[in-house]
Structures are given as C-alpha cells and as structure tokens.
From TrEMBL:
CDD domains: trans_reg_C
GO molecular function list: phosphorelay response regulator activity; transcription cis-regulatory region binding
Domain Response regulatory as annotated: residue spans: 2-116
InterPro entries per record: CheY-like_superfamily, OmpR/PhoB-type_DNA-bd, Sig_transdc_resp-reg_receiver, WalR-like, WH-like_DNA-bd_sf
UniProtKB keywords: DNA-binding, Phosphoprotein, Transcription, Transcription regulation, Two-component regulatory system
DNA-binding region range list: 124-218
Pfam families in UniProt: Response_reg (PF00072), Trans_reg_C (PF00486)
Modified residues (4-aspartylphosphate): D51
Gene Ontology biological process terms in this record: regulation of DNA-templated transcription
Ranges for domain OmpR/PhoB-type: 124-218
Protein name: DNA-binding response regulator
C-alpha cells in the first residue's frame, strides 16, 4: 500500500515514514504544500497523512483542492492546533480523521490502518479469502491456519489484494501501489513476487485472469 506523509518538520517526517514503513506502507514524503497538492492530484495513494501548517500552501487549502478535484483518497490530518473548531473545519474540508500534535505513533498507525480498510469497504483487521487469513494489525499471514513467513513487499501485495478482493486488480495498479517513485516499476518484477508467493502459499490462493490481473481465490482449493 502506498502512503504520502506531508510534514515540513524533517524529524517528524522521518519518524512518520519509518513508522508507516514498519506498518506495511510504501511511503513518500514531502514538506511543501504546493508539492503536496501536486502529488495528491496526480498520483494514487492509499493514504495521505497531512500536516496543516505547511509552507507554500496551507494543508487545509491543499485538502480542499483535492476534494474539489474529486480526489477521494483517505486523508489523516495532523495539526498542532487542537481547538475543536479547527478539527471541525478540517473534517468539513474533507479530512477522514484528525490527530492533534503531539500524538503517539501507535495511535496514528491504528487510525491509518482503519482508514485504509474503511476506504476499501473492509471494516475488520482480519481479512479472509479462501484458504488465506491476513491480519492487517499483526501483519501476519496464514494458509489454512498455518503461519507463513513472507517479506514486506510480499505482505504489501497480499494486503492490497485482500482489501480489494471483490475484483481483479490490474498489474499496473499493483505496481502503482506497491512501489514508490524511486523504485523500478516493471511487470517482470511483479510477476516474480507473485511467483514467490505462490510457492510459499500453495496453489489456489492467488489467481490470475489473463489479460486483466490478479485476485485472491474466494474458495479453498
């Protein structure tokens, strides 16, 4: 899953990126409102963590522009301004959740995971599809109750398929959400990850609809 952390304090931005990476996100960062607006308007993210006090363009204006343009990605707003009126203003501008500074990183991660699940129409932390069970809080995977050890990249792929398991996900979409701008996005690399997962998980977990993409099998083969 792909996240954008918008924060002009370099230390906080680094902490955010590290925590989100540990939670299974592929994270990009920026510290300027103009750049944030452009990225959110032109790239697809599963989550944006947005500070309101930004140089160039304030976060509230950035958020309003995204929503006016029809951009519907989940946005978790951060701000040092904790007055309830400002929280209401942020939510009315289109924020999906609101966290005042200072905050505990554990709470931010819990809220981030919940936002991503809700955006995909999946309320619970445990996602099940056929033989596969994926716990998005513990970041664990099991097949027919047997735990399977996977890499961070493999987890991101499975988590994305699990959250979008009602449809076939095109390879281009998977590449967009698994890798950041600095990574090579090649179909061969994606095929290699899927092949490794199939060896680990066994047959009948990840399906392919040729010419369309990948999906999780809903029946236990």
């Amino acid at each position: 899953m792909r996240a954008l952390a918008v924060e002009d304090d370099a230390r906080i931005a680094a902490d955010l990126a590290a925590a989100l990476e540990r939670a299974g996100f592929r994270v990009e960062t920026c510290g300027d409102g103009q750049e944030a607006w452009f990225l959110g308007d032109t790239e697809d993210y599963d989550l944006i963590v947005l500070d309101l006090g930004l140089p160039g363009m304030d976060g509230l204006t950035v958020l309003k522009r995204w929503r006016a343009a029809g951009r519907e990605m989940p946005v978790l707003v951060l701000t040092a301004r904790g007055a309830w009126q400002e929280r209401v203003e942020g939510i009315e501008a289109g924020a999906d959740d609101y966290l005042p500074k200072p905050f505990r990183m554990e709470e931010l991660i819990a809220r981030a995971r919940a936002l991503v699940r809700r955006a995909a129409g999946r309320g619970g932390a445990v996602q099940e599809a056929g033989a596969l069970t994926l716990d998005t809080n513990r970041m664990t995977v099991a097949v027919r109750g047997v735990p399977v050890a996977i890499t961070a990249l493999e987890y991101r792929l499975l988590a994305y398929l699990a959250l979008h398991r009602s449809r076939v996900v095109p390879p281009t979409e998977l590449l967009e959400h698994l890798y950041g701008d600095d990574d090579a996005r090649e179909a061969n690399a994606l095929e290699a990850v899927v092949a490794r997962l199939r060896r680990k998980l066994g047959a009948g977990v990840i399906g392919t609809r040729r010419g369309f993409g990948y999906f999780l099998e809903e029946a236990d083969a």
